[in-house]
Design brief:
This protein has 20 helices and 13 strands. With 469 residues, the protein is α/β, with parallel strands linked by helices. The structure holds glutamic acid (GLU).
Length: 469
């Protein structure tokens, strides 16, 4: 049976990189009716924080990447880690190393000057120097020579030179295991069949293989996922605007869109197809189709994808999703005036990438806009007198427009002939009109907006604009 796991350390919030790893583990397990486990690797007491753990659990739940059973807390497994350590020590496969930090630093520096990879070959390994049990840290006695090779499902055969690993550390104390030891013991305990994780862990794999061999644990299969890169092809970081999953949530990205987008970070299905529901991803995803080379995180594409999901949402679902991003007065207005809201929604939706944009893209439907005089003027050329004259003309045209003929087409038919006649072009009329209604440089079509606002409100706003000029 396929058994995968996501094993985050709670030393920071859930980021896209981690979420993508979780997603690939999830999809692979679900595709083959296997199990997907979550293990919180919190043995580093100093760097782990329960708040980050909560952020990780919430983020995965929000994305719908549900794991099987209860999540595992690595710090509660130390009895098992201890048993493994005791066994390695008893069999002479591990030893206590009492070298100080300073001594190790000197050794490392000497190796670097000789252009050798830094590693520690310990003279405590054979009991050559005195090292009382319990003193220093525990190291694996690495007697391996030649190549350590494993088959990576994404990269093919990967090899490391065994001697270059040195006698690597496995625990600070019997009850304080380090990552490589804990991960090997816990993966075996869960019966993990496929270790799917970030490429940054590839150099840990040979150490883990040596530990497995020493403990008589069968090797799982490996798949190391490509790095996620920013637009400039350097490793994705905050600098690229990369944010935590929770921040994407707060900005108003939909979990379905983020899942779809993350699936394409290193994987693609047949042809040019980009849009997949979670169920479709489960059906199509295969680890063998994941690419080796870095996957570029393209925010423009994420925004496009989110727009596609927003547009495809049933109206009620969209309303439910967007309401939390509105001020309470707006919320009340929406609840009281469903037909008004439905018209507003139709106008703003095609222009929205994320739900959080509602505050900016719809404020003028709910509140009278504020603007400076300059904004009312079409380019540099238009004088306040000229703009005022056009607004007065609009006011007269609209006052004689029957209130029951206040649809966008009626207004366009009424106003466009006047606008087209103007010397400076129609912009001299339509620009001040748009700003009077919205207070913005860019908005949906002013005739559409006017129809939603209604005659009284439109005339009031034009009057206010005239008074500003
Ligand atoms: N705790 C490790 C991390 O967060 C897990 C690595 C692994 O999947 O083995 O990077």
């Amino acid at each position: 049976m396929i058994r995968t796991r996501f094993a985050p350390s709670p030393t920071g919030p859930l980021h896209v990189g981690g979420a993508r790893t979780a997603l690939f583990n999830f999809l692979f397990a679900r595709r083959y009716n296997g199990k997907f486990f979550l293990r919180i690797e919190d043995t580093d007491q100093e760097r782990s924080d329960p708040r980050f753990q909560e952020d990780i659990l919430n983020g995965l739940t929000w994305l719908g990447l549900n794991w099987d059973g209860q999540h595992l807390q690595q710090s509660l497994q130390t009895h098992r880690h201890r048993t493994a350590l005791e066994r390695l020590l008893a069999e002479g496969k591990a030893f206590w190393c009492a070298h100080s930090r300073e001594e190790l630093a000197v050794e490392r520096e000497a190796q670097t000057t000789r252009h050798e990879p830094p590693r520690h070959i310990c003279n405590f390994r054979d009991g050559a120097a005195d090292s009382a049990p319990g003193e220093g840290i525990i190291r694996f006695r690495n007697d391996a020579t030649g190549l350590i090779t494993f088959a990576d499902l994404i990269r093919g055969e990967v090899s490391f030179q065994a001697e270059l690993l040195g006698d690597f550390s496995v625990a600070k104390r019997l009850d304080a295991p380090l990552y490589n030891l804990a991960v090997v013991v816990d993966d075996a305990e869960l019966g993990v069949s496929h270790v799917i994780r970030g490429e940054d862990h590839i150099s840990n794999t040979p150490k883990q293989l040596l530990l497995m061999d020493a403990l008589g644990i069968a090797r799982p299969q490996y798949a190391h996922l490509p790095l996620i890169l920013g637009n400039d092809r350097s490793k994705l970081s905050k600098r690229h605007g990369a944010v935590s999953v929770n921040e994407y949530r707060q900005q108003g990205y939909l979990p379905e869109a983020l899942v779809n987008f993350m699936a394409l970070l290193g994987w693609h299905g047949e042809g040019d197809r980009e849009c997949y529901t979670k169920e479709e991803l489960i059906e199509h995803f295969d680890i063998a189709d994941v690419q080796k080379s870095g996957a570029v995180f393209d925010t423009t594409k994420l925004d496009w994808m989110n727009r596609e999901y927003l547009k495809a949402m049933p109206e009620d679902d969209f309303t439910k999703a967007v309401i939390p991003y509105m001020k309470s007065e707006w919320q009340k207005h929406v609840q009281k005036n469903p037909s008004f809201w439905s018209a507003v929604r139709a106008l703003i939706l095609p222009r929205m990438s994320v739900l959080g944009e509602i505050a900016e893209s719809a404020n003028f439907f709910f509140e009278e806009p504020y603007y400076a005089e300059e904004l009312l003027l079409w380019k540099e050329e238009q004088t306040p007198e000229n703009a005022r004259g056009h607004l007065k003309a609009l006011q007269e045209l609209l006052e004689t427009q029957p209130p029951d003929k206040f649809f966008a087409e009626d207004l366009r038919a009424r106003i466009m002939p006047y606008a087209e006649q103007q010397e400076g072009g129609r912009g001299t009329v339509l620009w001040p009109f748009r700003v009077a209604l919205t207070g913005k440089r860019a908005s949906p079509d002013p005739f559409d907006i006017a129809a939603v606002l209604g005659r009284t409100e439109v005339i009031a706003r034009i009057n206010k604009a005239i008074s500003v000029l």
